[in-house]
Write a structure and sequence with these properties.
Elements (H helix, E strand, L loop, with lengths): L3 H12 L4 E5 L2 E4 H17 L7 E5 L4 H12 L3 E4 L6 H11 L3 E4 L7 H7 L5 E4 L8 E2 H6 L15 E6 L9 E5 L5 H9 L9 E4 L6 H13 L2 E4 L5 H11 L3 E4 L1 H8 L14 E4 L6 H8 L6 E6 L9 E2 L12 E2 L4 E5 L12 E6 L11 H7 E2 L2 E10 L5 E6 L3 E4 L2 E4 H9 L4 E11 L3 E10 L7 H9 L10 E4 L13 H5 L3
Parallel strand pairs: 1-11, 3-4, 3-5, 5-6, 6-7, 10-11, 12-13, 13-14, 25-26
Antiparallel strand pairs: 1-2, 8-9, 14-15, 15-16, 17-18, 18-20, 19-20, 20-21, 22-23, 24-25
Length: 504
């Protein structure tokens, strides 16, 4: 069966052969070169015994080689296992072993013995290292040089698996989200719908999100679907991000809220020319409207889009319509996606009531690799239970309140952590804030806030309590405040609350 996404990729490789596809460290890579290197890698992997359905793991920074790897693996009808480059040795071995990957494409690390990888992942047959010749590994560049760019067509079915996303690096039981080949076209289809086709070959996008996560992958999917030029950053550095917008005349990007806050703290912010931007999106947190509003002060003509979705729903699942002023909401779902709000008994609630957000569509994952118990837990009667809490207004716009685990029960009252964080972010002296629930003998739980102040600013706990009384009911005001120099982040730039919960 023909896969629309793969057909589009093949067509655009030919149509845009001479056009710049990637800009990385000021080096331009054309679509023709992208095709040549991806097909050479595909043939090399086939020569190593990789065939349709086999798993190939990728453990790289945001390099062009990551993109070649994705495209090569898909060309063979194999399954890509993208792994976060920040995973520890134990986490890496756990994910490779669980996925049963036969080949690993990686950047070598001094503290990562190859023999340890082989001993811990019995299915692993070959290791390919990029930019370095390592004993016991195959060199990526030499592999491509010896290969060729002609490959026989392979029949791929819609339900064949294209990706296994590991959403955490746990050494216990890894959670691998299955993405099939039909679903590779879901994010581009949604983005085309939500931005009213305001994304085309003439455009330039900027990516600072890791390719090991869905937010980064969407850039690759849109690259081959729309034929735009992608400026690629190995990692997010705020000043360099703004510099890239200015130098390369970037038209759009999507990042997580903590990245917006990092940009807004820069003293140099106003010195960069951001006039090329047409629209920007934030995903990944429900307290993002404040960041978008502040960004708009410097880019008043930019469309601000708030959106929501999970890896399991092949985000974006909902996005605020272009031109809407209601950036408190994450918008509506595309016509091919159903979204409802359920109570704890699995019954749909009325508009305005808070409950768990559930999703039904062909874009939803088939489940978790080799984990039928968890699959049955989240997929019930055709609906995927997201673990996110939300509500609809009377116009049908969705609002994300937080995660179920971000709900604090204070003496019988419900407090949502993102709501308190949003109130804290209204204070002009606060750079970052995160709220968690901590145990309390009298009330069961109470909110605790972690605060990072802007440079040169000073606040006392009583100042914050007085400020919050103007924005929150008394039981929502944190009982404890802890001032920190920085908050822990995960690889995608989101605040890592699990680390904060370990703070005593």
């Amino acid at each position: 069966m023909a896969i629309d996404f793969l057909q589009t990729m093949e067509k655009h490789f030919i149509h845009y052969a001479d056009k710049t596809a990637l800009i990385f460290r000021d080096q331009a890579i054309s679509f023709g070169q992208l095709k040549d290197r991806s097909l050479r890698l595909a043939n090399s992997l086939a020569g190593l015994g990789i065939k349709k359905g086999d798993k190939v793991a990728v453990y790289l920074p945001n390099w062009p080689e990551y993109i070649y790897s994705y495209l090569a693996i898909w060309t063979l009808g194999a399954t890509c296992v993208p792994l976060d480059f920040m995973l520890t040795v134990d986490e890496l071995i756990s994910c490779i072993a669980h996925s049963e990957a036969k080949v690993l494409i990686m950047k070598h690390k001094a503290n990562l013995p190859l023999e340890q990888l082989r001993n811990g992942a019995v299915a692993l047959k070959n290791i390919i290292t990029c930019h370095e010749k390592i004993e016991g590994a195959i060199n990526f560049e030499e592999l491509l040089e010896k290969s060729h760019a002609e490959i026989s067509p392979i029949v791929i079915n819609e339900k064949d698996y294209a990706i296994i996303f590991y959403t955490s690096g746990t050494t216990g039981k890894p959670k691998g989200v299955l993405i099939n080949y039909l679903q590779l076209g879901a994010p581009p289809k949604s983005m085309g719908f939500f931005v009213n086709s305001d994304m085309a070959e003439k455009d330039t996008a900027l990516c600072a999100l890791p390719f090991s996560h869905l937010g980064g992958l969407i850039y690759i999917q849109n690259l081959v679907s729309f034929g735009y030029t992608l400026v690629l950053m190995e990692r997010f550095i705020p000043v360099e991000f703004l510099k890239n917008i200015s130098v390369h005349k970037v038209n759009f990007f999507w990042i997580v809220p903590s990245m917006y806050y990092a940009l807004l703290q820069l003293k140099e912010f106003e010195s960069f020319d951001l006039s090329s931007l047409r629209w920007i999106v934030t995903f990944g947190a429900s307290n993002s409207p404040d960041a978008l509003r502040r960004f708009r002060q410097y880019c008043p003509k930019v469309h601000l889009l708030n959106g929501w979705g999970l890896t399991e729903t092949n985000a974006p699942t909902t996005v605020l319509p272009m031109g809407s002023g209601n950036i408190e909401s994450v918008g509506r779902a595309a016509p091919w996606i159903e979204v409802k709000i359920y109570d704890e008994n699995g019954k749909e609630v009325a508009n305005g009531a808070v409950g768990e957000v559930v999703v039904k569509s062909w874009v939803v994952t088939d489940g978790y690799y080799n984990n039928p118990e968890l699959t049955r837990e989240v997929l019930r009667n055709g609906w995927f239970h997201t673990g996110d809490l939300g509500k609809f207004d009377k116009e049908g716009q969705l609002y994300i309140v937080g995660r179920i685990k971000e709900m604090i029960k204070v003496g019988g009252e419900i407090v949502f952590e993102p709501e308190v964080e949003s109130a804290l972010h209204k204070n002009p002296d606060i750079a970052e804030a995160a709220v968690i629930g901590v145990q309390d003998k009298l009330r069961g739980e109470v909110p605790k806030a972690f605060i990072v102040l802007k440079e040169g600013k000073s606040l006392q706990e009583e100042d914050l309590r007085y400020f919050l009384r103007q924005h929150l009911a008394h039981f929502k005001i944190p009982h404890y405040f802890e001032f920190k120099d920085a908050l822990p982040k995960n690889r995608t730039g989101k605040i890592d609350k699990e680390q904060l919960r370990l703070v005593k």
